[in-house]
Amino acid sequence: MAKDVNPLISVLMPVYNGQQYVAEAIASILNQTYKHFELLIIDDGSSDSSEQIIKGFEDSRIVYIKNETNKGLIFTLNRGIGLSKGTYIARMDADDVSVATRFEKQIEEFKKDEKLVVCGSFIKTFGNGTERLIDYMPVSHAQIISSIFFTCPFAHPSVIINKEALLKLNDFYREDYRYSEDYDLWSRLVFVGNTINIPESLLNYRIHDKQVSTVFEDHKYQSVSKIQSNILSQFHIFPSLSESEFLLNLFKGISKQDEDYLNSGLTFLDKLHHQFAIKYPNYLEEHSQVVVSRWLKICGNSGMGLLNIKLAFKLPFFKLKYLKFRDFIKLLYKTITKYSQLDKH
Length: 345
Prior knowledge:
Layout (H helix, E strand, L loop, with lengths): L8 E7 L6 H9 L6 E7 L6 H6 L6 E5 L6 H11 L4 E4 L5 E2 L3 H11 L3 E11 L5 E3 L6 H7 L12 E3 H4 L14 H9 L4 E13 L5 H4 L1 H17 L7 H12 L6 H21 L4 H17 L6 H6 L12 H13 L8
Parallel strand pairs: 1-2, 1-4, 2-3, 6-9
Antiparallel strand pairs: 4-8, 5-9, 6-7, 6-8
Helix pairs in contact: 5-12, 7-9, 9-10, 11-12, 12-14
């Protein structure tokens, strides 16, 4: 295909010793139904045969760049942003596979909403012997901004980002938030413009034991806690150590067999709900639904029998309309089976 001198999309694909999967990842991008893109493949000092595999593809849309030494993902992504020519920046990992219509469907969303800054999608995991559709991510901007306190709302390699919005930030991917650098980026971009996830799997996400999220989990959660504090500051909340611990446990989905701990958590969630209502009154229904769902999970994971249910309905702003039937059934099941998923500290 002839080189596009003004590509609409710049696809950033970092590669580090990716010989096992990189060819499949590249092919899934080159086979997109939407054709107007450049594919920036940045080799981060690989010592395997990744370079030979990449150079084996003959397509003028590929721009091959190589770091002379291994600089790490954050440096490599920021370098790619600086070199990109597109109006939009698409992320792609060297071990994943994009569905052929991914870019076409995401660009349509940007055409429909000029304020859209991030568009992700559901994903399907594969590679560990089973396939699983990840379809519980927040979809609308109201749901995403309501969830940002408790979860990373996007699958990183599924997103397309408006580059103009990205340039409004002082920094892109930040070293201070290593292993959660994507969560940090979303925690700032959600306040720049609209965000969505397309409720359809547009990326196949490979699971394997060498992933950063698996190897550096403790470092990841240190970054998550800092990011959560940054988000709360947008709502004029400056958490105590115990509140930060509770919020991080909400992110992890773990609890404690401690009624006082959970009652303190109720007080914190009520404070958050009040501050959220001041900043985003139009999103309060979505926020309430998100918090109720997260709270029921924490109650169910506390392993305190019928007290789980008593605490679940004790949330000050709880209403039946915020209760998802699926969440309630899970709470009942966990209560009956005395299930627990607890903080080990």
